[in-house]
Write a structure and sequence with these properties.
This protein has about 220 residues and is of the alpha/beta class. It has a single domain, classed as Alpha-Beta Barrel (TIM Barrel). The chain contains eleven helices and eight strands. The chain has an eight-stranded parallel beta barrel with strand order 1-2-3-4-5-6-7-8, surrounded by seven helices. The termini are far apart. The mean pLDDT is about 95.
């Protein structure tokens, strides 16, 4: 499973890269705005210079022609740019055009298996089902991942599944058990994946015993 970091924070990316746990990045205008950088394209270039892996950058247009034009500009920034397109019919039209131009796409805001299937048929490189937002309304996000993976397997579709809106480590573990291609997660959830009280207490005991041995 690949780990994409869902952030535009440079220090967070450096930390994940230092651990060897950043296989890509997902961003959007909101995440970049949080960093206080009003120059969207400049910040994307900065991320791409640091992370030599897929970097998803989102369009804001609503009509397919405008999405395509915006996507071409984003894709020209760096070879690693993947263009995020919303799961709408206008978005699917844009994906079809961009796929023909060999521009990679990530269809975002997926909330049903049918949306994922249509995106894959349009040629999306990735689909991003949002599990946390479904859990928020008492619908199982993991059931959505299971259904999408089954459909893609049934028809041997090449589109990769990015589990998005990840809220806690269990989302990651369940995604891995189901065989999802990618999870995109914030740094705090990535940190929690390594955290366990028995590990902490075990290290503390080993060090305590070692110090006693040295003093003896």
């Amino acid at each position: 499973m690949k780990f994409f970091l869902d952030t535009a924070n440079i220090e967070n990316l450096k930390q994940a890269l230092d651990w060897g746990l950043c296989d890509g990045v997902t961003t959007n205008p909101s995440l970049i705005a949080k960093e206080g950088n009003k120059d969207y394209k400049k910040h994307l270039k900065k991320i791409c210079k640091l992370v030599k892996a897929p970097v998803s950058a989102e369009v804001i247009a609503e009509k397919s022609d405008a999405m395509v034009e915006e996507a071409r500009i984003l894709a020209a920034l760096d070879d690693n740019i993947v263009v995020k397109i919303p799961a709408t019919f206008e978005g699917l039209k844009a994906v079809k055009t961009l796929t023909a131009e060999k521009i990679r796409t990530n269809v975002t805001l997926i909330f049903s298996p049918s949306q994922a299937l249509l995106a894959a048929k349009a040629g999306a490189t990735y689909v991003s089902p949002f599990v946390g937002r479904l859990d928020d309304i008492s619908v199982s996000g993991m059931d959505l991942i299971r259904d999408i993976l089954t459909i893609f397997s049934n028809y041997m579709l090449d589109t990769e599944v990015i589990v998005a809106s990840v809220r806690h480590p269990q989302h990651v573990v369940e995604s891995a058990l189901l065989g999802a291609d990618v999870v995109t997660l914030p740094l705090d959830v990535l940190k929690k994946l390594m955290s366990h009280p028995l590990t902490d207490s075990g290290i503390e005991k080993f060090l305590s015993d070692w110090n006693k041995l040295m003093k003896g």
